Amino acid sequence: MNWDQIEGNWKQFKGNAKQQWGKLTDNQLDIIAGKRDQLAGTIQELYGVTKYDAEQQLNEWEALQKSGSCCCNKDASTPTKGCS
C-alpha cells in the first residue's frame, strides 16, 4: 500500500486519521481528502508541531495502516497498536 491508495480510499481511512489526531474536524478531513501535504500542514497547525514532526507522525500512521494495526493515541504523539 502506498499513499495513493490511502488517498483513493480516503473515506475508509479518514476515521482512523480522526482517531489518531482527535483535533481534526470532519470538515477538515473532507477538505484534506487524503492529500498528504494538506494533512501534514493541518497537523502542524492544530498541534503546534514542526513539519518534520508532522511528517514523522504521518509516516508512523501510514505504516500502521499498511500493517492493518489500529492507532488510538489521542494525544497524537506516537501511534499505538491495538485498540481496546
From TrEMBL:
InterPro entries: CsbD, UPF0337_stress_rsp, YjbJ_sf. This is Putative stress response protein (Modular protein). Belongs to the UPF0337 (CsbD) family. Residues 4-55 form the CsbD-like domain. It comes from the Bacteria. It comes from Crenothrix polyspora.
